[in-house]
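User: I want to check something. If I give you two sequences, will you return the structure for each one separately, not as a complex?

Assistant: Yes, each is folded on its own. Here is the first sequence with its structure:
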Amino acid sequence: MRILEKLRRVPTRYTALAAIAFAVVTVPAVLFAWGPTRPTYTMQTPADHVTFNSITNNPEVGDERNFVGIREAGSTSTWSDSMKVQAGKSYTVRVYVHNNAATNLNASGKGIARDVTASVNLPTTTAKSIQVDGTISASNASPKQVWDDAVFTGDQNFNLSYVKGSLKYENNAFGAAGTALPESIFTSSGAKLGYDKLDGTIPGCLQYAGYISFTVKPQFAQTASFTMSKLVSKHGANSWVDSYAAQPAETVDYLVQYKNTGDVQQNGVVVKDQLPAGTSYVAGSTVLGNSVNPSGIKTNDGITTSGLNIGSYAKNGNAWLIYSAKIATQDKLPCGPQKLTNTATVETDYGTKSDTADVTVNGATCRPPVVPVYTCDSLSVQKLSDTSVRFSTAYTIRNATFKGITYVVRNNQGTELYRGSNANYTQTVAGTYTVQAYVVVTVNGEDKTVTSDACKKSFTIVAKNITVCELATKKIVTIKETDFDASKYSKNLDDCKTVTPKMITVCELDTKKIITIDEKDFDSSKYSKNLNDCKTVAPKKITVCNISTKQTVTINESDFDASKYTKDLSVCAPVVTPPVVTPTELPKTGAADIFAKLTGVISLAGATAYYVASRRNG
């Protein structure tokens, strides 16, 4: 039954459902080729707005989000997301288009999609994988655009060629024959779709859905390939095999074959052959055969060195080379049965291939092999002191060269503490340790190492007590030797002896007092060892005149201030009052007159005496 017939027969109950809430489950588009991530619906609960290809249970296509598919042209096989192409076949690409709006929205126009446009990205690239993308958009859809893709794959590079006239759009209005679409669909502009005409208008509901389809053919690039092989034969027998049993000193023939199995001509084909040790090329033995020389012709030497250029070969062209090699004499071969593998290589502009052929031959008589013996037999640990031990190892070595012994010391947590060849080991941290000895020998130029359970031992380090001077307290204490810290302790017990301070008598400069102090506290800025610096010196006295009081005073000479005192004592001399002159009277001769004269004389004499005394004091 054709899809259009199925669309027509979809029960009307699907198309008559009213729009209800859309499904809330969405699946991230990154998991699929479709997009964008969007709300999904079912046939029973269609969308309440215009949206394309979002129903998950479409009876014809299933999940509409996967709306681009491929199948072989003319077949009825299932549409696939991926198709492996084959030469000579054509393939149809289908893009499904369905407006998921509920039918009852069409009457109001809310369910009708406007400006519906489809575009298809059909790459023109050549590759082993080509992705075709389909996009459906509408101006009033939500989301406005949806997309999906399908992939063509191949074993070799190809491109896709559009088959002219195959592009069409099918639906219930256009029928199975469909209507042609413009090839603008293969551009970013796209092509308008519709229901009964390509006007960009598609109502909502399954009956208005349709298919875009077109046909493509894969076109394969020309291939470049070739085959080659290598065989060997008894000399002159032309009995070619992969492996030949020869005798020492025998001559054998080698055959290299080449054929161009591709579509393009291969120019400058080079053949090289690598002879194994024990064989040598027979000069002048190389013969080349091809379509020009089907019976073969002698050619240059060089196949076993730089190689031979055997020319150019078109499709299905072939060539062969035969040359001879001589096996070495038995005494020149390694002892015992030998397989001499010969490798031939063909080089072209399109790659390189190689193949091998074997010659088996008995070599020289073998001598019994020399078997090296090397074992680690035992390990002992000798205690040298509380913190030092010495390791000693016994071993057996034959047909090998002794190189040394490596000792590995670990703590009881298995942490490696030491690795080296020194047999003396010192450890100051108390605890239990293990040591393992590894014997190192040289066999045929290669270093070998051997140990055993017998070469693994444990030993104990015990902390030693020592007597020291505790510097902070000046006390003699006993500590573990491993706890000794030179910043806290001294092994010189004299450092804890009490030292009687040496006292000295000094002059305290600030107080001028003689005191006794510890000699270590002496500070020349505070003290003097010259006790005379504390003796009291009586100040020198001087007599001066106090300028402000006009009094003669005695002061310390150090207190003299010229603004207050003067050494000129005359400044302090008393002021002399002149005598009172009595007015002239007539001379009197009485007793009173005599008394007056006597009084004047006495007064003058007193004044004179006071002046003389003041000058002496001055």
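And separately, the second sequence with its own structure:
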Amino acid sequence: MLAAVAGVFAGMLTLIQQFIAHGLQQLLYGVTINRLSALGSIHHPWRLLALPTGGLLLVLMARVLRRRRAPVDVVEANAMHGGRVPLSDTLTIAAQTILSNGTGASVGLEAAYAQVGGGVASLLGGWLKLRRGDLRTLVGAGAGAAVGAAFGAPLTGAFYAFEIVIGTYTPSAVAPVLAAALGAVSVTRALGTTPYLIATTSGRSFTFVDYLAYAALGLICALVGILIMRLVTFAEQRLQRWKQVSGWGPIVGGFLLIPLALASPQTLSAGHGALHLNLLIHPALSFLLIVLVLKIAASVVSLSFGFRGGLFFASLFLGALIGEIFAATLGSGSLGVRLDAGDAALVGMAALSVSIVGGPMTLAMLMLETTHDFALMGVVLAATLVSSAFTRETFGYSFSTWRLHVRGSQVRSPRDIGWMLTLTAARIMRRDWTSLDPGTSIAELRDRVPLGSVSKTVLTDGDGRYQGIVVVANAHAADLDPTAPISTIAQQLAVTLRPETSIDAILRLFDDAAADELAVVDDEGHIRGVVTEKHARRRYFEALEVQQRELFGEV
């Protein structure tokens, strides 16, 4: 019931965001709703000053907010923070995305949809003090519901939640995720929103050669997807090194987008209108190639220069262009393979989006729900699986997790790793260690610490700073000089843990150091506790068992 409520809110907020963004496009460009990218030409080029103006507003917004960290999106929140999404981060991402898309930057609104849907769900779950696993599920359900509402496709929204936000299909999450998706789509249809539909060719079948051709298209889309993701990062890094410009990036990016928009208005906004226009008229191959290059350039400039938004819908448009180019190229050759341009565009949409966004079933369901074409599903699945597998094996990231990785995050997928980051050395360390001065003689240690009383003793100087660990059994060895200081047989002098070290890093350090006990030391070198390998592994497996039980809804 709570997920259904979150879904209803997500659906309504999705419509509100669409209304604001498209209203901005009407105000600034004088076009009908959702048709900015379908313009044949820019009749009033001065209107394109909306792009740098939007960049200026983004710069001013950043100066006013003065954030010291990047806002937490729903994927990062579910992977690292147990589904907790700060309200301020949700509002910031939504405002920046709506402003970027509304002023014409080449970004989609899906980032704002998912953020607001997941943010509302997180807020509801926080008020009710839900457990970590339940909150993650609710956040995923809210984010997926918002995306489903945007396309009028509940199954697409459900699989978006499973594959891209929650990170796995779980029996315990099926009911809430589907309830949220159905609630969101129902409220948007009740308010009169038309579902996102694409007409396809009917009454045809696909041969084995067609499957091979579409699998090749999936591979091409994977290569293009990886190229786009790397280009965005490359441009971002170069801009950050240009200190005089980096602080004004969105303004500079806005000016760079103007000549691209003059060359082709299809580079503006996410590309909804241009996608439908191209599917209807099937332009010439040369035109498609030019638009593809320009749209990639516009997306890279928009994202790397500081405009906020997603690549989901831009990747659908780019994939459609690649599919039509692929079909036209095969048709003009001597291979004897003829593909329907519309079918190739739809397959390319799914294959490129899978490479960039992730979620092969999400895109397969999107194609099914927007075309109602079951015959097309086979070749769509073939292309998306090839694209997904190739991207995963050669690159290993979706666009959202790749950007987190570039920032230094450990997130590689929506899988929950936050519990490992909170299970730190400070939480599992013992504070009842035996301590001796490093200058103590071996004979004195034998008197004060009899064999069998404790296994190890920690050495600390007069200021309490760590000086190593001594194995008591080694100190009782007969061949040692009893007058020698125990510092001569100390171990693990340079290998220590910090209080904030996470459990996975602790276990790796135990393996690398071949130690069974390590000291926890603060910034000033004072010992705070001791962690044994046996205790660390037991705590890890206990926490892992709790996660497994939550995964299957047993707690």
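Because they were folded independently, the notes below concern the second chain alone. The beta strands are 435-436, 456-460, 466-471, 517-521, 527-532. The first strand starts at residue 435 and ends at 436.
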